[in-house]
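To: structure subgroup
Subject: Chain for Friday's discussion

All,

I'm putting the inputs and outputs inline so they're searchable in the archive.
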Amino acid sequence: MVNYRFLGNSGLKVSEITYGNWVTHASQVENDAAIKTVHRALDLGISTFDTADAYANTAAEVVLGEALKGQRRESIEIFTKVYWPTGPKGPNDTGLSRKHILESINGSLQRLDTDYVELYQAHRYDYETPLEETMQAFADVVRQGKALYIGVSEWTAEQLREGAALAKELKFQLISNQPQYSALWRVIEDKVVPASEELGISQIVWSPMAQGVLSGKYLPGQPVPDGSRATDQKGGDKFIQRFMNDDVLAAVQKLKPVAEQAGLTMPQLAIAWVLQNPNVAAALVGASRPEQLDDSVKASGVTLDADTMAAIDAALSPVAVTDAEETYTVSPKTRVV
């Protein structure tokens, strides 16, 4: 079963293994299989589910809502997001304007078939909307009871500080950030994590297995496995490319004996590694089949000793990306349409 952690400086607990449905629901996975996987997550003690309006252009929220139908609402936590283009992708169907936020939360709630979400997240930073407008809209969403808390995704340390200050003025809580984080992608450690610790903000990290590379299934000099993320032309192949070189893949293979010594599979080792960071509240995992979750949840509650952590660093430090400047490149400078 899964352990639980507080999300930021709040009283909300979330399952430290959180189910995310990016690139699976309404995309890679048929709806029946997606629903069975969500039900397996619930059976394993995963109570927290993360989605976004932009996933499969709103269809992923519909699938998640259908999968959670009939569950005791108070026993689960639902997260969704707003920013990327949705619907017909007109000029106001994107960004963090007041118009888009207030319209988007209503659409998300309808698709998820719920009156509220636990966490509503800014999927990126919107450079074209005044931050005051964005945070006021989020404050109104909270006051209307449509979201209990507010979070963000891939914000820089400075953006987190500015957002948290406005949230405090407006008397609501900014409690989370959702960045990419793994033993191969460590760019949040230098600035984002210290700022978050100072502000009472937790990380909900995506891609803890580096798009599956840390599973060890991609071998240097070998063709990629059929049906893997690297072959997914609906988006998955683009995100994995930065890790698909022989130097990285060879370094990852050095983790096999480390995982075996720790009594873990390589995916479990990767997930357990991110959960060793005390500022991480949850690791987002996806699954295309229910049995994949059986493996992932075994990373919950695992403590990696100092020798294991050192061995991981020794294997991956030559190829891991640690430059904090990468955190400034994620949010588009202009809205995507």
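Points worth raising on Friday:
The domain at 4-328 is CATH 3.20.20.100 (TIM Barrel).
The chain has a mean pLDDT of 94.

D.
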